[in-house]
Design goal:
Elements: H1 27-87, E1 130-132, E2 143-146, E3 159-160
Antiparallel strand pairs: 1-2, 2-3
Pfam families: T2SSG
Protein name: Type II secretion system protein G
Keywords: Membrane, Transmembrane, Transmembrane helix
Length: about 160
């Protein structure tokens, strides 16, 4: 090509005619289905994620509740041992755990007594701990336990000093 010659313009072409079927032809129901999918997939994902998170939270909460019960049982057991050292016996079932805070008024009355606890802790479900002497499940001489999340004594979710 010689220098300084202008380029010739491209020849004009006729516009391409599109047939009515060449564009997107999915129709209103197709668009509605796509829209439904766009909503359903994220909602289903959030539902599954929430279910997984809820299950993990429940497992974590149950583990934390069990640890709290174990710590409280150890603390009350230490108080019962201190009571036994002073009184030469554990409190009876009738005297209950209240004997750790107030001098018992029912026999056998301890010859020496002092308040071992200021107040009794409650289990994670705000229920009082249960005490039974003599023991029916534990080898410690007494049963000390929480009735668990269902609040019913003698069910599978009870947590005690025999476990």
């Amino acid at each position: 090509m010689p220098e300084n010659t202008p380029l010739s313009p491209l020849p004009e072409r006729e516009p391409i005619q599109q047939s009515p079927r060449m564009g997107c032809s999915i129709g209103i129901f197709g668009w509605a289905f796509i829209g439904l999918l766009c909503l359903a997939v994220p909602v289903a994902s959030l539902f599954l994620l929430n279910k997984f998170r809820t299950q993990k939270y429940k497992e974590f909460h149950e583990g934390a509740a069990r640890q709290t019960i174990q710590v409280n049982l150890m603390m009350i057991s230490a108080a019962l041992n201190a009571y036994r050292t002073a009184a030469a016996t554990y409190p009876t079932t009738a005297q209950g755990l209240e004997a750790l805070m107030e001098r018992p008024t029912e026999p056998p009355l301890p010859s020496q007594w002092f308040s071992v606890l200021r107040e009794l802790p409650k289990d994670p479900w705000k229920q009082p701990y249960k005490y039974r002497n003599p023991a029916t499940k534990s080898k410690n001489g007494y049963d000390l336990y929480s009735v668990g999340s269902d609040g019913v004594d003698g069910t599978a979710d009870d947590v005690g000093n025999w476990q």
